[in-house]
Specification:
Blueprint: H1 9-17, H2 32-44, E1 52-56, H3 62-71, E2 74-79, H4 82-95, E3 100-103, E4 116-122, H5 131-140, E5 142-153, H6 157-166, H7 168-172, H8 184-190, E6 194-201, H9 217-233, E7 251-257
Helix pairs in contact: 1-4
C-alpha cells in the first residue's frame, strides 16, 4: 500500500528522542490558541466515562492526558514510532494515568485493533498526500455512530507567507491542501460524515510562526515582527482572536459522527 507519506518513521523517532517528560496539555493564560482548542473539545465531545478514545499518531499523549482528566475516557494511543511509544509509556507512568499503547502502523493490513467510541488525530493527516485513504483508516477504527475528530495546523495565507521565509523545511513535510476547509467537503460526502462542528479556530497565532531555519537579517526582522505581533495579540488585542479565516487562523478542526452508507 502506497500511503505517500511526507515524513518517515526515522524522522519521528529522532523527533521524540529527547522530548521532555512529563508532558500534558493544560489550560494556561499564555496559551490562548490551545485554550480555544480545549474549549472546542469541551463544547462538542460527550462526557461519558464509559467511552473509549484512540489518538492516531498519539505520542507522547499530551492530549490524551487531557481526555482522561477532563472526560474520564478510557484512553488508547496508536503510533508507529517505537521511540515515541516508549516516551508515551514513560509519560503516563510519570502522570500515573492508565493507557493502552499500540506500536503499530495505521496503514498496516494486519492492524487488528478493536473499534473505539471516539477516534481522533491532531497534526497527523496533513503529513500524507492521500487524504481519502487517511480518513478511511481513521473510520475503520471507529464504531458506528462514533465520533471522529480531526485537527490540523493552518499554514495557509499569512501563516504560509511567514513560514515560507522562516521555515521552508517545515512546509515541505505538510500537505497544504489538508488545511483548506473547502477540501473537507468531499471527504464528508464520500464517507457520509455528519458534521457536529467544523471551522478554523484560535485566530491569528504568531507563536506558531516561531521558527528560524535560515538565519540572516531578513529572517531576523521577520522574527522580530512575529514577536511584536505575539505580544500584542496576547495583551490589548485579544479580541481579534474571535475572528477566524483560512487566511490567518491557527488551526482547523472537524468533529463528525460516523454513519453507515
Amino acid at each position: 500500500m502506497n500511503k505517500e507519506e511526507l515524513t518517515s518513521e526515522q524522522f519521528w523517532n529522532e523527533y521524540w528522542e529527547d522530548y521532555p517528560l512529563p508532558s500534558e496539555i493544560k489550560r494556561s493564560k499564555g496559551e490562548l490558541f490551545l485554550n480555544t482548542l480545549l474549549d472546542t473539545f469541551d463544547n462538542y465531545l460527550p462526557r461519558d466515562k464509559n467511552k473509549t478514545i484512540l489518538e492516531i499518531g498519539g505520542s507522547p499523549g499530551r492530549y490524551l492526558a487531557y481526555m482522561y482528566r477532563n472526560f474520564g475516557y478510557k484512553i488508547h494511543s496508536l503510533d508507529y514510532s517505537e521511540t515515541g511509544n516508549k516516551k508515551t509509556i514513560e509519560n503516563f507512568n510519570l502522570l500515573q494515568i492508565p493507557i493502552e499503547v499500540y506500536n503499530k502502523d495505521l496503514f498496516s493490513d494486519e492492524l487488528n485493533l478493536p473499534q473505539f467510541d471516539i477516534v481522533y488525530s491532531l497534526g497527523f493527516i496533513e503529513h500524507f498526500f492521500d487524504l481519502n485513504l487517511v480518513i478511511e483508516k481513521h473510520l475503520k477504527l471507529l464504531k458506528h455512530s462514533g465520533i471522529l475528530l480531526i485537527g490540523v495546523p493552518n499554514y495557509l495565507g499569512i501563516n504560509h507567507w511567514f513560514l515560507k521565509r522562516l521555515s521552508p523545511k517545515l512546509l515541505s513535510i505538510h500537505n497544504i491542501a489538508a488545511m483548506d476547509i473547502s477540501n473537507w467537503r468531499s471527504l464528508e460526502e464520500k464517507y457520509n460524515l455528519q458534521k457536529i462542528f467544523k471551522g478554523y479556530i484560535g485566530g491569528f497565532e504568531p507563536q506558531n510562526l516561531n521558527r528560524w531555519e535560515k538565519k540572516n537579517i531578513k529572517t531576523f526582522l521577520l522574527k522580530v515582527i512575529t514577536k511584536i505581533l505575539s505580544l500584542l495579540l496576547h495583551s490589548n488585542f485579544k479580541f481579534l482572536r474571535r475572528f477566524n479565516s483560512k487566511y490567518f487562523s491557527a488551526y482547523l478542526v472537524g468533529i463528525y459522527r460516523k454513519s453507515e452508507g
